[in-house]
Amino acid sequence: MGSVLVWFRRDFRLQDHLALSEALTYCKKNKSELVFVFQLNRRFFQESENSLRLQYFMATVKDFGERCRKLGTELLIVEGDTDEAFQQVLKEHADAEAVFFNLDEAGYGKERDQKMRDWFKDREISVHSFQDAYIHGPNEVLKKDGSIYKVFAPYYKAWKQKDKPGVKKLSFDELGKYVRKTKQISKRAASEIEKLSGGSESMDWKIGEKAARSQLKHFIEQALANYPDGRNIPFVKGTSLMSRYLKTGTISPRTVFTAIAQADGEEDSKEAYIRELAFRDFYQMIYARHPETKNQEFLEAYRSIQWNQDDRMLQAWKEGNTGYPIVDAGMRQLNQEGWMHNRLRMITASFLTKDLMIDWRLGEEYFAAKLVDYDPGSNIGGWQWAASVGTDAVPYFRVFNPVTQSKRFDRDGEYIRKYVSELREVPSSYIHEPWKMSEEEQSKSSCMIGKDYPAPAVDHQEQRKKVINLFKNEK
Question: Which of 55, 58, 174, 246 fits as disulfide partner to 196, beta carbons 3.0 to 4.6 Å?
Answer without folding.
Answer: 58
